[in-house]
Design a protein that fits this description.
Layout lengths: L1 H10 L1 H15 L5 H32 L6 H12 L9 H100 L23 H4 L1 H28 L5 H34 L9 H11 L6 H13 L16 H14 L7 E2 L13 E3 L10 E6 L2 E3 L2 E4 L1 E5 L3 H16 L3 H10 L15
Parallel strand pairs: 2-6
Antiparallel strand pairs: 1-4, 3-6, 4-5
Helix pairs in contact: 1-3, 2-3, 3-5, 5-7, 7-8, 7-11, 8-9, 8-10, 8-11, 10-11
Length: 460
């Protein structure tokens, strides 16, 4: 009996049964029905093994007490519990075999559980590393997509710029065709007899040269094409030369572009004023001895077209430079002088003066910083913010004919253009503010431009 009891204690079957019960208790809620039933059957089998061993020990103990040893205990304790299902436990070896088998199963299950745990940890580590690698790949993909979007935006801007260049080339082609027709007409006129000279019945302060009656209207279309082409040439060639000259004195490219735009605007203003004054003097002179089938206005226009070389362009250039020096929208070093772009201003004044002889005359569009960008009037500069709706500043004015755009200008669009323009204007106006007396003295000391006009037409 002592050997059987010792084997039962050494096997630790009861402790294993308790551990099984505790594990089942913690896993009961997460197990399926079949898993819980299997656990229960496993515990019943272990319990039956322990019961078999106990019945073996009970049998051996009762034999040690003799023939009637332990009868009373068996009657009072065991028989009521067994009842009619009592069966003598004679198969102790079978129970021991089952117990050893169960122990092996438990050990294998423990090893499998440890293996599963280690594999789970390894899988979790691999999953974590995979997720980190996936995050890095996603970040690289986002960066690549961002670069690709930036490249696409740049390509869109380039395509817009190329489209603008194509439109400009088309305009130049049409202008070249117009120039060709003008040259052909000049060749035809050079081969024809010389026109009749206009004879004045009274002395005139203006030199009268030979000109064909109605010449201005007959050449209006050809002159229109030539002047539009010249305006485009100034934009594409002389403007860049002026930028190169200004960059040697002014480092801010935006200010350089503002100065050039201001020069274009002021040149048109000065040329239009000079044209009105010149036209008034011509009308006053020709009205004295005017006669013929043409009206006085046609005769005046013919004379101006034929005598455009009498236009005092230097006086307009001087007026433009004077106006630019007091313009609050531009700034420049104290030692700088706008005379360095004198040829650029001169060409603008000549073209603007000639455009006033057309019917209808050509003029530039009015532009204001912070205005709403118009696709019909301007091209966007390459460094513009293509999502902005307001004009930060203008690079080149648009050419207009009866409020219709015939040549687009160029403008820079940026976000916050109106606010930056106001702050810049306030700072410049404070830095350039002078008293009216000093302003009057500076104007009175400046040399007067050489003009052949009467005092009534002077501009103060």
């Amino acid at each position: 009996m002592a050997d059987s009891l010792k084997r039962l204690v050494t096997a630790e079957s009861c402790r294993l049964l308790q551990e099984k019960l505790e594990n089942w208790y913690w896993d009961y809620e997460i197990n399926s029905c079949d898993q819980n039933l299997n656990r229960c059957c496993e515990l019943i089998e272990m319990n039956s093994v322990i019961q078999g061993q106990l019945f073996t020990i009970l049998n051996e103990t009762s034999r040690e007490g003799g023939h009637y040893g332990g009868v009373e205990t068996i009657k009072t304790r065991l028989l009521p519990w067994l009842g009619t299902c009592f069966s003598h436990a004679t198969s102790g070896r079978l129970f021991e075999t089952n117990l050893s088998f169960n122990q092996d199963s438990i050990e294998k299950e423990r090893q499998l559980r440890q293996l599963a745990t280690s594999q789970t940890l390894q899988l979790q580590e691999e999953l974590t590393s995979t997720r980190l690698e996936l995050d890095r790949v996603q970040q690289d993909l986002k960066a690549s997509l961002a670069q690709e979007e930036d490249s696409l935006r740049w390509l869109d801007r380039l395509s817009d710029y190329e489209q603008q260049q194509i439109e400009m080339l088309r305009d130049k082609l049409s202008i070249v065709e117009a120039q060709k027709s003008v040259l052909q007409s000049r060749i035809a006129r050079s081969r024809s007899p010389s026109p009749r000279r206009i004879r004045s019945r009274s002395p005139s302060p203006l030199p009268l040269r030979s000109c064909s009656p109605g010449r201005a209207r007959s050449t209006n279309a050809s002159r229109h094409g030539v002047l539009v082409a010249r305006f485009g040439d100034i934009y594409s060639r002389e403007r860049f030369d002026a930028e190169r000259i200004l960059r040697a004195y002014i480092g801010d490219m935006e200010m350089v572009q503002r100065i050039i735009y201001t020069a274009a605007v002021e040149s048109f203003q000065a040329a239009k004023l000079a044209y009105r004054q010149f036209k008034m003097r011509v009308r006053k002179t020709l009205s004295i001895g005017h006669s013929g089938p043409e009206s006085l206005e046609d005769t005046v226009l013919d004379y101006i077209v034929h005598h455009e070389d009498l236009y005092d362009v230097q006086a307009s250039v001087t007026e433009v430079i004077r106006s630019m020096k007091i313009n609050p929208k531009i700034s420049f070093p104290p030692e700088f002088d706008f005379v360095v772009i004198n040829s650029f201003i001169r060409e603008l004044c000549r073209v603007a003066f000639s455009m006033q002889t057309l019917t209808p005359p050509l003029d530039i569009a009015f532009g204001m910083d912070g205005e709403l960008f118009s696709e019909t009037k301007y091209h966007r500069s390459v460094d513009s913010d293509y999502t902005a709706a307001l004009v930060a500043y203008h690079v080149w004015p648009a050419l207009m004919e009866n409020d219709v755009v015939i040549v687009k200008g160029e403008a820079v669009t940026k976000r916050g253009a109106l606010w930056s323009h106001r702050s810049r204007s306030r700072s410049k106006s404070r830095s350039r503010s002078v008293s009216p007396l000093l302003s009057h003295l500076s104007r009175s000391r400046s040399p007067s431009p050489r003009r052949s006009v009467s005092p009534s037409t002077w501009k103060y």
